[in-house]
Write a structure and sequence with these properties.
By secondary structure, the chain is an all-alpha fold. The chain is built from eleven helices and no strands.
Length: 210
């Protein structure tokens, strides 16, 4: 047996064993949620699929919801990218198309499941808001503020209210599933909301300061 073989047979986990187990667990949750709801998912099923013990799961995540949340952030949420759109309206339309595309896939399914689980455990909703939703709202607020500064939107536009008017109905349809989520629907929401905030006169705050 070579020296390298002796090293490989020593007692103890290899250095990358934790990373491999973590990846296997994330894979297991991702795959199982393709067919199961968060409510139907069990820690036993995840452990079996990932070929790890249940104590390993609870060592890293205190609950099933925490485990699902970890997978959501690692595999589904993605990074928040800066908008390259020229106007606030263009930026919001791009974000709407992205959101609808994501909501029609596994991202939307898990998002709805997490919101449902959050009715029993408010800490889930708090983490979901702080780590995901609030960052995207802040980005859209910045888009709207740029639109106000450029004269695209009327000066008294309230960013938070405009965001709620445009995006809240999308979450409504995601959760109740009373009608399909389509790009046409997203465009109609934006069209309706922007009728009240578009600066038709073209008055720019910058011009008024001159």
């Amino acid at each position: 047996m070579s020296g390298s073989d002796v090293k490989n047979t020593r007692i103890g986990r290899p250095r990358n064993d934790t990373a491999v187990s973590h990846a296997a667990i994330m894979d297991a949750v991702y795959e199982l949620l393709q067919d199961k709801s968060a409510g139907d998912l069990t820690m036993e099923a995840v452990a079996k699929r990932a070929n790890v013990g249940k104590p390993t799961l609870y060592k890293w995540w205190p609950s099933k919801a925490a485990l699902i949340m970890a997978m959501f952030h690692e595999r589904l949420a993605g990074k928040l990218e800066a908008s390259l759109a020229a106007t606030a309206e263009e930026a919001i339309r791009a974000k709407m198309r992205h959101l609808i595309r994501e909501f029609n896939g596994l991202f939307g399914k898990v998002m709805a499941d997490l919101i449902a689980e959050g009715q029993r455990d408010p800490s889930i909703l708090q983490e979901l808001y702080e780590r995901h939703i609030s960052l995207r709202r802040a980005s859209t607020v910045a888009d709207i503020e740029r639109g106000k500064a450029s004269g695209e939107l009327v000066p008294d536009t309230v960013p938070e209210l405009l965001i709620d008017a445009i995006f809240a109905p999308v979450y409504y349809r995601l959760l109740l599933r009373l009608a399909p989520l389509t790009n046409q629907y997203g465009d109609q929401l934006i069209d309706q909301a922007f009728r009240g905030v578009r600066n038709i006169k073209g008055d720019s705050p910058r011009k008024k300061r001159k």
